[in-house]
């Protein structure tokens, strides 16, 4: 069984936007037990679209195309699909009815040119669009089912879930089941991870291990394929436990969890509150914390103290300490953590200070030097890191390392008790 995708649009092929559609489609097909065979991308050029349709239809069982179904002159997908499959282009009454209803619900006037979205090939099945104006459609051609969906990601995702994947599943009698487990690893390179766990793969038993770098994490993907679903889940459970044993606390999240959702759950479980003092990250840590709903239950406040003056004024970092040790130092990081914890009244406080670059480094403290500090009621610890990437990656790595500090600290606390 072969599935491929086709992205249509000048904005995609010229690099004006990132094509997130193909990544989402591939991921959801994989979750459903299917693998993508090939992906093509063409611009808003009718002959190119026709050639791509003909090529993919000749070598696949299913093709999922996105883009080019809008009302403007450069939206050519429906006409190209009709010509490539030997069909006429007609006004589809069901698509027109949907179009008029969507405009009525939006309270907007429907211009005559908008009817172009209802001009579709004959002998098709409509793919309902519950949140947009353009319906999709399905064309059987040369033993292949061609799905045409809008390029708007939000619309495409709904149509993929509600129509396309169920359609494919209804026509495929799979003899095997595919189960996948994703584990997120921080602080180890892809090579180091593979060296530690590669012996856990059991290809003859249907268990494979794949690695995907999603900086600053590495995703370890355990994939089991076989006929007995219960046995596959047991195999994945056993292997996941061994991965944790081999990688230890470097495994920061599993399944659909992320490091920030894991940290959020730990804060709720442990019953402690947090404050932050950030310098080189400029509020990125606070953003990760507050991206999740419910963070107000444990996150009290964050301060971005970029200048020395703000560290002195907001966090009560002694001026003489900054003069002696510098803004990027273990002593300053600890003073920042203690200062924000005292000002906020939080149970714990975390502070970061560093040199993200590209300028500002020295021989003693080169670009990428970062200090993290964590203060509780009775103690405060700090550590120096040396990250060797560009500014964006230094800030990203610092943010994830800070979250990992919080994760490890919270895991060591008793449940439902604040620190003494």
Folded structure, characterized:
By secondary structure, the protein is α/β, with parallel strands linked by helices. It is built from 14 helices and 17 strands. The chain has helices spanning 10-13, 20-31, 46-59, 77-84, 93-106, 153-171, 190-197, 229-247, 259-270, 284-290, 308-315, 319-325, 330-344, 391-411; strands spanning 3-8, 36-42, 62-66, 89-91, 119-121, 125-127, 136-141, 144-149, 177-186, 207-214, 217-226, 251-254, 274-278, 299-304, 348-354, 369-375, 380-386. Helix 2 (20-31) packs parallel to helix 6 (153-171), helix 3 crosses helix 4 and helix 9 packs parallel to helix 14 (391-411). The protein is globular, with a radius of gyration of 27 Å. The mean pLDDT is 94.
> Main sheet: which strands, in order across?
2-1-3-8-7-6
**Structural class based on helices, strands and sheet pairing:** alpha/beta
The domain count comes to 3
- Portion of residues within helices: 40-55%
Q: How many extended strands?
A: 17
Radius of gyration: 27 Å
CATH superfamily of the largest domain: MoaB/Mog-like domain
CATH architecture of the largest domain: 3-Layer(aba) Sandwich
Main sheet makeup: 6 strands, mixed
How would you state the average pLDDT, rounded? 94
List segments where confidence is low: pLDDT < 50 over at least 5 consecutive residues. Answer: none
User: Helix count, per DSSP?
Assistant: 14
So what's the overall shape? globular
Q: Give the CATH level 1 class of the largest domain.
A: Alpha Beta
How much β-strand is present in the residues? Answer: 15-25%
Distance between the termini: 60 Å
What is the fold-level CATH name, i.e. the topology of the largest domain? Answer: Molybdenum Cofactor Biosythetic Enzyme, Chain A
């Amino acid at each position: 069984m072969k599935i491929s995708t086709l992205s249509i649009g000048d904005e995609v092929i010229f690099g004006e936007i990132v094509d997130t559609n193909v990544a989402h489609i591939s991921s959801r097909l994989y979750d459903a037990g299917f693998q993508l065979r090939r992906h093509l991308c063409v611009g808003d050029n009718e002959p190119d679209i026709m050639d791509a349709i003909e090529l993919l239809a000749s070598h696949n069982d299913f093709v999922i195309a996105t883009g080019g179904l809008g009302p403007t002159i450069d939206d050519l997908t429906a006409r190209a699909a009709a010509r490539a499959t030997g069909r006429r282009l007609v006004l589809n009454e069901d698509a027109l009815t949907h179009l008029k209803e969507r405009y009525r619900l939006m309270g907007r006037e429907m211009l005559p040119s908008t009817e172009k979205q209802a001009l579709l090939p004959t002998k098709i099945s409509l793919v309902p669009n519950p949140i947009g104006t353009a319906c999709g459609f399905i064309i059987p051609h040369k033993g292949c089912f061609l799905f045409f969906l809008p390029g708007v990601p939000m619309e495409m995702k709904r149509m993929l879930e509600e129509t396309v994947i169920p359609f494919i599943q209804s026509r495929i009698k799979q003899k095997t089941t595919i189960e996948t487990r994703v584990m997120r690893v921080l602080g180890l390179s892809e090579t180091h991870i593979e060296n530690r766990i590669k012996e856990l793969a059991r290809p003859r038993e249907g268990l494979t291990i794949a690695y995907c770098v999603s900086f600053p994490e590495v995703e370890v993907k355990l994939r089991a394929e076989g006929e007995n679903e219960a046995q596959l889940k047991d195999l994945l459970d056993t292997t996941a436990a061994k991965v944790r044993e081999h990688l230890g606390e470097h495994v920061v999240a599993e399944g659909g969890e992320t490091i920030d959702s894991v940290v959020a759950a730990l804060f709720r479980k442990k019953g402690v509150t947090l404050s932050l003092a950030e310098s080189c990250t400029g509020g990125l840590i606070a953003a990760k914390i507050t991206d999740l709903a419910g963070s107000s239950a444990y996150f009290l406040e964050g301060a971005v103290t970029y200048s020395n003056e703000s560290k002195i004024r907001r966090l009560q970092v002694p001026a003489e300490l900054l003069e002696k040790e510098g803004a990027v130092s273990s002593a300053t990081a600890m003073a920042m953590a203690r200062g924000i914890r005292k000002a906020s009244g939080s149970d714990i406080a975390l502070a970061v200070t560093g040199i993200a670059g590209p300028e500002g480094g020295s021989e003693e403290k080169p670009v990428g030097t970062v200090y993290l500090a964590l203060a509780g009621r009775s103690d405060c610890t700090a550590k120096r890191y040396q990250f060797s990437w560009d500014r964006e990656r230094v800030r990203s790595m610092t943010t994830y390392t800070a979250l990992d500090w919080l994760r490890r600290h919270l895991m060591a606390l008793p449940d439902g008790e604040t620190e003494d």
